[in-house]
Write a structure and sequence with these properties.
The chain starts with 7 loop residues before the first helix and ends in a 25-residue tail after the last helix. α8 packs parallel to α10, α29 crosses α35 and α33 runs parallel beside α42. Helix content is about 75%, strand content about 0%. The protein has 46 helices and no strands. The protein is mainly alpha-helical.
């Protein structure tokens, strides 16, 4: 991290404000704390209420200390006050006295409205308040104004906040006097390690020298850095204690940049006012929201949860105590699991309760729950709402604390009170019920309480980004693969050309023995010319291949690559409203069907070893769904937990069928250059053979053997080369028009077939978890959906091969043998109709199958899926495809193109008789 350049954005000026003259003030002796404060702490006594504590007789206070003040930790003493019946009775008696004093001083109506807040006042302040707000019509408004922090003129001043307590390790590093004058904006967040770093920069022990060191610009910059990181650590630490350990410099940089405005607003407010000011508190919450809602933190939270689930492998009730475990780092969590290896729920929880770490957390959470309910009960009581069943509500709040991180629960409550202002104060038990219900509702869509949640608009946006990322990665991969395969073919062609030319060039060494009377000059001249002609012919094939690869790579890659078409079809299908709504609604139940895979794709780098998985996004999310079946959240709600392990393997096995089909489809871009080579080499094999044997024929002619060849042969070879050069351009023109048509059909067929595959993969999760699962039914469902997609693409490969192959032969007939285009008018008409018909049939079939699926699935209960529900549509669609394609004469149309006769002779002839017109085309 770049020091003040980053953290200084929020905290500029904070250190300067801290280093006031008071820095060099010496520490004064502090009086000893009263026994009650020493035993229970000022914070706990403040929660009990100053008026209640003031009503304690010295003997009662001493008794409380005797009963509950002997524990090592203050929090244990505080917890004892609730557990110990005698201590609770003492406090209850003091509480009743305090309420009686309030009624006498301010009247019953005021106490009903503001009783909980008034109990926080001490007796002198209450007396002043009674004088300032005399009995009468305006008393309630006067009291309310005082309690809001803005008392009437001449009223009692607002009590100063209590001095901050520091850990012993910090007090060993810095004098109390130095710490006391630092703004709370700094001391509230700095950690012990931060104070150590500060002490290392300023080791001087005397306050004067220490103050001077702290005033240096370098030290201020260091403090800015430490404070920036400490604030983020403090905020995200409430989500999970493990997260701060995982944040690197890049993460801090992005958080500082993203939340710069919120940080500046809060820091400026705090410096101008105080940490306790309500406006500053609201700005602090805005900063916390910005930090914790950031996708970096949400992702870290998700990863931490995954790791802790792994540490708790076998404990399916992890979700029930996820909030409590958030207070522990991963190492402590692992140790806790090792100490309690039992898988049985009751046995495991009993072991946890005996663990000292977990026990302390349990006591703390119980105390927090009790305090929260007690405060609400006091408000309700003061408002005249009567008594509530505190034990019941404490159990509810305690369970929420176990399930959600503390910060998440605090934020959820704040969101509810903001959403429904009437819930900010508790007047009746119904208000408390409404607040708890609201917290439960808001928790579904809060990214902190529910990191799986993804809103519909966010999902659409992420799918768009994911689509662009996948398509771009695929495009680069496809083009790189084409280049690699093309160069390999060119290398092979070069080797063939070079080897052939060398053999032809060296033929006189053999021919001179057979024709000793022929001049060596004639032989070497003819062989050299033949070798050059052979090389030129092969080179012409290579040039044609390069031109076609360029056309395909930069004009038609997106349209002719089945893998890219299927990828695009996957995102098109997922962006449909039915999936957007389904995934968003499922995420409210903390089921992450799409958020994590999309985030991984968006964050993927091309050099990432896992990026290859993301490119086949349909298979990737289906694999993610199969893995979800083994997660605790899903296992907790599944009906068929016992069969999950067996069928999850089947799920992943069925996905291999799809991946195999996908792998075969990746070969198509490589197939096109190979097809080009074959379309050229096969028709030219006789020409190449003729060129290679030219020296032998020339030698035989010179020897008077009567063979024809020599100069005539070379003229024919030249003509062959010229003809090949002429037919390259019309052939490429046909390719340029035809390949986008193939791409259009691929685009149209991919979406409905991928939609079928994705829906059946999604159904499989519910089928395995809640239905009547069968391994055979599962394989038939997923396998049929995957193979149907592959079957459709095979049709396009055949159509492309047959049509382009026949066009190549017809062009050869024209440019090599002098035939005319008119002779093949039936092919140009009915051949085009036949190939378009053959390619259109699968598109219509795919949309029909998809419509059938939507119709039949509309009434399905996904929690009660049967094997018939799973296999009916994909199996019928897969088996029906070849049957219907045959019945509608699709195969006949392809065969008509394949068998169309072409004249490959120089003898002028009438137009060839075409085979019977395919049934797909009307009679001419």
């Amino acid at each position: 991290m770049k020091g003040s350049k980053l953290a200084g954005r929020w905290w500029a000026g904070v250190v300067a404000a801290a280093l006031v003259v008071g820095l060099v003030r010496t520490a004064s002796a502090q009086p000893a704390e009263p026994p009650l404060e020493a035993a229970f702490g000022k914070a706990a006594l403040a929660e009990v209420g100053a008026l209640v504590v003031g009503e304690l007789e010295p003997a009662a206070a001493d008794k409380l200390v005797e009963l509950c003040g002997k524990h090592e930790k203050i929090e244990d003493n505080v917890a004892c006050l609730e557990r110990d019946a005698e201590a609770a009775a003492i406090l209850k008696a003091a509480h009743q006295k305090a309420e009686h004093a309030l009624v006498e001083a301010l009247g019953e109506a005021v106490v009903k409205e503001h009783g909980a807040a008034l109990l926080k006042l001490d007796k002198p302040t209450l007396g002043e308040l009674a004088k300032t707000c005399p009995e009468g019509e305006g008393r309630e408004a006067c009291v309310k104004q005082h309690l809001s922090g803005a008392p009437p003129a001449g009223g009692p001043p607002k009590p100063e906040p209590e001095a901050q307590a520091y850990p012993p390790e910090v007090l060993e590093l810095f004098p109390q006097a130095i710490l006391d004058v630092l703004p709370k904006l700094i001391t509230r967040f700095l950690r012990v390690e931060d104070y150590r770093a500060l002490k290392k920069a300023c080791p001087e022990p005397e306050p004067e020298a220490l103050g001077a060191c702290l005033a240096k610009p370098d030290t201020q910059a260091l403090l800015n850095d430490l404070l920036g990181v400490a604030v983020v650590d403090d905020i995200v630490g409430y989500m999970d204690a493990e997260i701060p350990k995982r944040l690197g410099a890049d993460a801090y940089h992005e958080l500082f940049t993203t939340c710069e405005k919120q940080g500046d607003d809060w820091a400026n407010c705090t410096l101008a006012k105080s940490m306790e000011d309500e406006a500053c508190t609201a700005l602090e919450e805005a900063l916390a929201d910005c930090v914790t809602d950031n996708d970096i933190i949400t992702q870290q939270f998700t990863e931490v949860q995954r790791d802790k689930k792994a540490a708790f492998a076998g404990a399916e009730f992890y979700v029930d105590i996820a909030g409590m475990l958030a207070a522990l780092d991963l190492e402590t969590t692992k140790k806790l699991r090792q100490a309690c290896p039992a898988n049985g729920r009751d046995e495991f929880l009993a072991c946890l309760a005996a663990d000292p770490v977990f026990s302390k957390l349990d006591d703390l959470f119980s105390t927090i729950a009790s305090a929260a309910v007690e405060e609400a009960a006091g408000e309700i009581r003061a408002a005249g709402g009567g008594e509530i069943d505190q034990a019941k509500y404490q159990a509810v709040v305690y369970q929420a604390l176990l399930a959600y991180p503390v910060h998440a629960l605090k934020k959820l409550t704040a969101e509810c009170q903001k959403k429904k202002p009437e819930l900010a104060s508790m007047k009746t038990a119904a208000d408390l019920d409404a607040l708890l219900a609201c917290v439960d509702e808001v928790s579904e869509t809060s990214p902190i309480a529910n990191p799986a949640f993804i809103g519909k608009d966010t999902l659409r946006k992420w799918l768009g980004i994911g689509r662009e990322k996948v398509m771009d990665m695929l495009r680069k991969k496809e083009r790189a693969g084409q280049v690699k395969s093309t160069w390999r073919i060119l290398i092979v062609l070069g080797a063939i050309g070079a080897l052939g030319a060398l053999l032809v060039l060296g033929s006189p060494l053999v021919l001179r023995r057979k024709y000793p009377s022929v001049s060596g000059g004639v032989m070497w001249k003819s062989s050299a010319f033949a070798a050059v002609t052979f090389l030129v012919t092969i080179a012409l094939l290579g040039v044609t291949l390069l031109i076609q690869r360029t056309v395909q790579g930069y004009v038609a890659t997106d349209s002719t690559s089945p893998v890219m078409r299927i990828a695009a079809g996957t995102f098109d299908a997922l962006q449909e409203d039915k999936y957007i709504e389904s995934f968003s609604d499922l995420s409210k139940a903390r089921l992450d069907f799409i958020k994590e895979p999309l985030r991984n794709v968006m964050n993927a780098r091309e050099d990432d070893t896992k990026s290859e998985e993301y490119l086949s996004f349909a298979a990737y999310i289906a694999t993610h769904w199969s893995e979800m079946l083994e997660q605790p959240e899903v296992k907790n709600i599944m009906r068929n937990v016992e069969v999950v392990k067996k069928l999850v393997g089947g799920f992943k096995g069925a996905l291999k069928v799809y991946k195999s089909v996908n792998w075969i489809l990746k070969l198509l871009p490589i197939l096109l250059p190979l097809l080009t080579v074959l379309l050229y080499l096969l028709p030219m094999k006789d020409t190449l053979k003729e060129i290679a044997t030219a020296p032998a024929r020339a030698a035989a002619e010179s020897a008077g053997a009567g063979a024809t060849g020599g100069p005539g042969m070379f003229q024919r070879a030249k003509g062959t080369v010229r003809a090949e050069m002429k037919l390259v351009w019309p052939f490429l023109a046909v390719v340029l028009v035809f390949l986008p048509l193939v791409g259009l059909c691929l685009s149209l067929i991919a979406k409905p077939l991928v939609d079928m595959f994705v829906e059946h993969a999604l159904m499989s999760v519910f089928y395995i978890g809640f239905g009547e699962p069968s391994a055979l039914g599962f394989y038939l469902s997923m396998g049929s959906a995957a193979l149907l997609l592959g079957f459709g693409v095979v049709i396009y490969i055949l159509a492309m091969t047959f049509f382009l192959g026949k066009v190549r032969v017809i062009l050869r007939s024209k440019y090599h043998f002098g035939q005319t285009y008119r002779q093949y008018k039936k092919f140009w008409l009915w051949g085009v109709v036949a190939v378009l018909f053959a390619m259109a049939l699968p598109v219509g079939y795919a949309y029909g199958a998809n419509f059938l699926m939507d119709t039949l699935h509309a009434s399905l209960d996904w929690l009660k899926l049967t094997t018939t529900d799973m296999i009916l549509v994909p199996l019928i669609a897969f088996l029906g495809f070849p049957v219907l394609y045959w019945a509608l004469r699709g195969f006949k149309a392809l065969n008509w193109i394949r068998k169309f006769p072409v004249v490959l002779t120089a003898t002028p002839a009438a137009a060839p008789a075409a085979p019977a017109t395919p049934a797909a085309a009307p009679a001419s």
